Amino acid sequence: MVICLCKGITDKKIEDLVEKGLPTKEVLKKLGVGSDCGICVVDAIEKVQAKARSKERS
Known about the structure:
58 residues, mainly alpha, Arc Repressor Mutant, subunit A, 3 helices, 59% helix
């Protein structure tokens, strides 16, 4: 699913970085979340946090 149209950020790209152990701020910075229109920021943060929680449980 596309999270950010401006940067072409998908949920898969976010999940891959979380799997590598990057913290939320680093994931957002590395992908450029919010650097254009900013509409994606809330959805991207929610996706990072959800993936991090599921990673902790496994």
